[in-house]
Structures are given as structure tokens and as C-alpha cells.
Design a protein that fits this description.
- The complex is a heterodimer of chains A (148) and B (414).
- The longest helix of chain A is centred in the last third of the chain and has 24 residues.
- Chain A contains 7 helices and 3 strands, in the order H-H-E-E-E-H-H-H-H-H.
- Chain A has a single domain, classed as Sufe protein. Chain: A (Alpha-Beta Complex).
- Chain B folds into 2 domains: 140 residues, Aspartate Aminotransferase, domain 1; 254 residues, 3-Layer(aba) Sandwich (Aspartate Aminotransferase, domain 2).
- Chain B is globular.
- Chain B starts with 12 loop residues before the first helix and ends with a helix.
- The chains are: A alpha+beta (148), B alpha/beta (414).
- The structure holds pyridoxal-5'-phosphate (PLP).
Amino acid sequence: MSKKSIIETEQEIIDDFSLFDSWEDKYEYIIDLGKKLPLLEEQYKTEENKIKGCQSTVWLVASYRDGKVFFKADSDAVIVKGLVSMLITVLSGHQPDEIIAAKLDFIREIGMFTHLAQTRSNGLLAMIKQMKNYAIAYKTIQGIEQKQ
Amino acid sequence: MKAPNSIPQVLDVTSIRNQFPILNRRVKEKPLVYLDNAATSQKPRSVIDAISDYYTNYNANIHRGIHTLAEEATMAYEATRHTVQEFIGAAFPEEIIFTRGTTEGINLVAYTWGRQHIIPGDEILISAMEHHSNIVPWQILCEEKDAVLKIIPVNDHGELSMDAYLELLNERTKLVSIVQVSNALGTVNPVKEMISAAHKTGARVLVDGAQSAVHLDIDVQDLDCDFFAFSAHKVYGPTGIGVLYGKKELLDSMPVFQGGGEMIKEVTFEKTTYNDLPYKYEAGTPNIADTIAFKTALDFVKEIGKASIREHENNLLDYATAQLQQIPGLRIIGEAREKVSLVSFVIKGIHPQDIGIILDNMGIAVRTGHHCTQPLMKRFGISGTVRASFALYNTREEIDTLINGLQKAIKMLL
Ligand SMILES: Cc1ncc(COP(=O)(O)O)c(C=O)c1O
């Protein structure tokens, strides 16, 4: 079975969220995702891997295998961790170009990130930027490898 | 402490609430519960109207024009200066310098008095509970002048250690810059005693009154502070306007801050002579509308009376503290004997930001994070707190809503 596209995964999340009719359900779902996200091994929780939001800390680690980028992450705040978890579900395992091009409209569509995405109080935007930066970096490596 | 189940009626809160239009709005389809007053207070209708009245009826540049509008605007602007003078008990109106706020007031002192007086090896004393606005300007100055920033420690209750303070004071101490009420802990510091001790060793004292101006009776002559800075927006007034008070002889002898219009007497390309106080420190066209509305805010506070406001807020604080203490896993940060009007806390196993997000969904506005006091958070070994801060329009019912909200948040998050 081939992996779903970024857009397809985003749509699945949007569909999931459309089933919730209260904010509590939405948040419980995200909190649950946050709690279920595998813990990042301590050795990765370094200054270097930190994405500093104003209030919560996110650690993001990327790796590159067979032309695809894989992400792992953790946070000290569980809602942010739930959001990271969704971003990982959507972006991890895709090629650099796909990640770079991803618009991530689901963030707006699921209708709960309006203030989260805009305040500096969490690293959500910084997180997306960092994921894309990794993709850009791996794309450069990919280019070099192909030339060789 | 046993939780009281009601709080005495000191203020007519219903009629006060009716004067604050924003309190009628709903957030996430729920009535707004605004408990972030230490960040900025809401504004009564009279303040909002004063801004609009200025622009509608007598907008003009001040001090310069001879026409009617300019005169009306100038009179209104200067009237605020007199009201502020009375509000903080200054001896002269020209000791009241209008600034953008507390931060600008502190920076003004650092850039003028500081550059004039601080020399290598001098010490500037601040406390471990300072707001970044009362840390960074002094760090910049110390770096530039090769001076040393010394820190008065905070004990586990969130109080300054007076013994340590007295020990730190010495003949090299040129300035003590100290917060009167901590925005993160609510602690009221004994600034009068501290000022008197500092003066004995010859140091000057700046008081950061950002949080205290709205709650405490301020008398700068009685305190004998050399500088006092505060912001209108935390006293039911507009943003973008604040006050630096300074003793006249000090302000007179200090160099200018910003150059430009208004602050000059005569300009030639060879030499410019500067205006007298307070205009010497008010370069350029000031924030006229907000300055005028600031008077309205101070009149509003005066009319209700700070003593009653304080009593009401203290009742809210006691009630909230007692209720919060019932919540398992909750730890109050800042248990000083002298506190006003705000309570900071953490809950075991939960990040403050998560609590803030859940409460927001219930229409409850609290502050979460480090409150611009990162060194203080570090002192308590935490990254931040949840802070509920009260104003004269808050009610016991709102605290009940907060407590219920917290219980729900804990259930969802743990
Ligand atoms: C204790 C304290 N000092 C300084 C400030 C800075 O005030 P402003 O941002 O109005 O300049 C604040 C505001 O939060 C404060 O609480």
C-alpha cells in the first residue's frame, strides 16, 4: 500500500475533527494525541533540537532515509505536543519537495488554531518552519548525492 | 485558611461593571471572565469617551498654537499632569514626566542619570523579582560602564531578604532599582524602609510602580524615592502613556534624553539650549489623546477610592487563595505576608500553557508563562505559572468560574 499524500492525511484529520461538536472533544482528542506521541529519548532533548516558543519547549529531530524525511518530537506542554503529533502524522515520511510545498491548510480548517498559530505563546509556527528547514536542508543533500 | 463562602460587599460592583463595556462581551460563546488585570486593566466608558471626545472636538497640537483648539488641548493635557501629581503626592507638577510607560521611564533614567553618574566599579542593586523592564536597561548600562549589577535574593515565600539587602548595600552602590509590587508574585516590598537604607549609603532609588500604582496609596514624598515609574494602562487608563516621577533637583541636573521639538528653548546650528522641566524630557508631539484620557482614569479611581478598591481586591485575593488551596497538586508561588490582588500558581504535572488554553475556551482570561520575570521563575525552579489578577470589577462568582474551570482543565489534562 502506498503512503497517503500530505493532502490526503490532512483531509483525514479534517474529517476526524468534523465529527466533534464541542471544543472539549476536540481538545481531548489533541491531548490524547499528545499523550500518545512516543517520548523522545533524553539524548535528543538538547539545546540544538529545541524550538523555543515563548512558553513551551518543543524538541524536534529529523532524519533522512531513502529520499524521505522522518520527524520525531516532544514538548513539555501536552496540547502543543498533540499539535506536533498531527504535524508529524502529516509530514513525516515524505520527500523534501512535498514537505516544502505543503500548505498545511488543515491547521486553519480544524478551526482551533486561530489564536494558537498567531501568538508567540507556542512554537507552532516556529515548528512548521523548522520542519520545512529540515526538508530544504535534505533537499540540498539529495541534490548533491544525485550529482555524485 | 478556611474558605469564606462569601465576600463582603465593599463596592457596588454591578454598577462598576456597567461602566466597563468590554465586560459584556462573550469569548468562545461564554461571558468573559477577565483575570489578567496585572497585564492591563480594562477601561471604563468615561476613558474611552475621553479619547473620542478629544479627537471629535478639540484635536490640536499642544503648547504651540494660539488658536482655541490648541489652547483647549494644552489645558487638558496639562490638567493630567496636575492630577498625576496629586495621585502620587509629588511636590511639583514639573516632576511629572510623561513617557510611553514604565519601561520608557526606567530607560530614561538609565540613559540620562545612569550615563551621567555610573562609573566603572559602581554597583546597581535590583532584586530577583524584577520585571525584565527593570533588569535589561541596567544590564545595558552596566555593560557599557563596566559597572556591576547586584541582585537582592528572594526567599521561598517570595519576599525579599532584607538582611541580604542591607548587606549588599555599600558605598559603591549608586542606585537601587526596585519593584514595589511584584507582577509575578503579588509581593508588596517594603520600599520605604529600603529607600531610607539606600539613602544612608548615598544611593539613589528608583521604584517600579507598574503594579503598585493601581492598588496602593502612593506618596512619593513620604517614600522619599528619587524616581517612580508607572503606566496608565494598568490603572484603567489607555496604553502608550505613563509617568516618570523624579525629584526636581535631580531631573534639573540630568542630561537630556531625546532631542527634538518641544524640549528646546532655542536652536542654532552652533548650540541648542534646552527647555525647562518637564518639557526637557518630552521631545516631539506627545500622545495627547491618551494623556488626556489618563486623567479621566485617575479621576475614576479617585472617585471610587483606592481604599475601597483595595479592600474589595484583597477580599477577592483571600477568597481565591483559599479556594485554590483546596485543589490537589496546586502550589501557590508567592506567599508573602504582604500581597496584593494577584495569585500565581502551578499544578503538578501540567504545563501552565495547557491550563491557559483550556481556560480560554471557557472564556476565562488568565496569564500563563514567565510574566517577563525569567530569573524569578528560575529561582523557583519553574518555567512559568498561571496567574490570576484581580481588579475592582471582578466578583466572587468569577473566581468560582475560575476554580470550576481549573478543575475541568485538570481533569482533561492529567
Ligand atoms: C512590575 C512591572 N514592571 C514593569 C512593567 C512594564 O510596564 P510597561 O510594559 O507598561 O512599560 C510591568 C508590566 O507588565 C510590570 O508589571
